[in-house]
Amino acid sequence: MASTICNINLVGAGLNNLHEFLSARTQFTRSHMLWPLSNSFLGSSNLCHHVQKCINPMNTKPVRKKQLHWHRQTYCETAGENSVPSQHKNEENISKATLIWRAVKLPIYSVALVPLTVGTAASYLQTGVFFARRYFLLLASSALIIAWLNLSNDVYDFDTGADKNKKESVVNMVGSRTGTLVAAYVLLALGIVGLALASTEAGNIQSILLLLSAIGCGYIYQCPPFRLSYHGLGEPLCFAAFGPFATAAFYLIQGNISDVHGGLPFTSTVLSASIFVGITTTLILFCSHFHQVEGDQAVGKFSPLVRIGTRRGSQVVKVTVVALYALLFIFGWSKTIPLTCTFLCALTMPTGHLVVHYVEENYNDKAKIFMAKYYCVRLHALFGAALAIGLVAARRIWC
Description:
The chain is mainly α and 399 residues long. The protein is built from 20 helices and no strands. It starts with a helix and ends with a helix.
């Protein structure tokens, strides 16, 4: 009987020891599973403290305490090695497809589409005529010009070191500066030929002069010996190139000078529409600098965000979007633009609010603020589409 009781006591003690061991192991495992979720905001020292807090060594036997101490030490060392910010890890693990997508910058080509479409719609409002073949020739030529801008920008930023760590730089991806530069200027030549053909067909010399002025703005923006973007003048040049120059030029090209006595008049409606296009295009450029402030500053590129900082830059974005819609209602009230434009463009206000909110929330997060320019592209495309549709609708309704 006594021996049976002793055996039962031994079994009970063994079960207690097993329960204590499994409890401690479960707590450690749960803490371990939380590490991937906490990696982005916990340092190694905080994690070690968390693990030690979860595991109470007083509840275990001496042998288990020694083993658990070894687990904690090994785990804390691993945590220290993995304390690199998650955004840097994400940058290291970007797929080839993502890099190609970023290098191509397909959404940015909306800056070729919107000025052309708005200018064409303004011309249609005035004449009631639409030249489809000329439109698509201008679209293809404009896309070639934008490709030149993107490729040459990568080349010249590579030269200054601004794109040294930019994986999506075309020069870094293909490994040839000369090849990229030659391709860029071949595209520029083809684009200019297309624009010249369209201008000749329209019989309007003013339009090609305006387009050459727009291309000149792009050249002095980024190309040596000017590189005015390094002096914080990129945004004014962008506004002029895509706003008054390009939009007005497309307006003139889409109206045959032979069909309109003396040529198309340069109206306040065209000027107002070009201002809207210039503002939304410039907003894309401005927001593209948020995640590049440190790199730009290191190579002496004094973009507006380098000068004023990202916090004030987020306030500039807010003021710009508010000003965009304020001008919309002012121009609508003064009948500078048709009522249809005011109504349809006002429908894009939620997108404008999205841009402001996103930048205000993420201006200090380099991984997230990268997407700000794409939200601006969305605003640019939607506002431009609404503006163009409003101009066409005004012709249909009131003429």
